[in-house]
Amino acid sequence: MQIVINNLQFPYDIGCRILKVKHKDCPFSQLEDIWEDITPITFKEIAQLENLEQRRVAMLNYGLDRLVKEIKPELIDKKTLKKTTTWVSQDGQLVTKKFNDTYELYKVNGEVFGKARNSWSKPDDCYYVKCKDTSTDREYFIWVDMKSVANTNGQGWNWDIKKVNAIQAIAWTIQTDIPEGCIEKIVRQGDCVLIKPIGKKVKSESTRHLTESEYKNLLVAES
Questions:
Q1: d(CA 83, CA 68)
Q2: Model's pTM, two decimal places?
């Protein structure tokens, strides 16, 4: 038997536990008889799900507040950028807005994930950057590959966590095929990122991540 959550099928017992972690009251009459006996799923159990889409949907239902409470992340770095951007008002007028944009970089001890898949070894520590949506103030957690973040910003693979900051982490989440030094400006609207090259666009053979300097100096407008 399967349970469908967010248009995705789950095994019956796992689906029940995901529903229990999200809903205080029973969402379906078919589950009323067993609702009080269902144990909410944990983050560690979600992390062990083999199917990537099932993990994604389970985390959406699990929620950020519960995630932070369970994994007890360690704050590595916090940075605030003072920004000025341009908005279009409801009457079509351009409006200039100044705001503080704060980013926080966290470390999550690998032990919270349980044993590594198909291995008895402890999973590596993981990292995420916390930020807010410019227009709604909704908070987002974005997982980042810290080795790649460090490498992108000139550290090499023998990286030092003390030299990695939150701006480097958020910049890493944006990728482009425009070579470094060839970007005129960057405009961001939600998840849509527009990057304008200097002169004729010259593509790299592969994509790369943005650096801290590019994010701080070339991102001219966002909403």
A1: 28
A2: 0.80
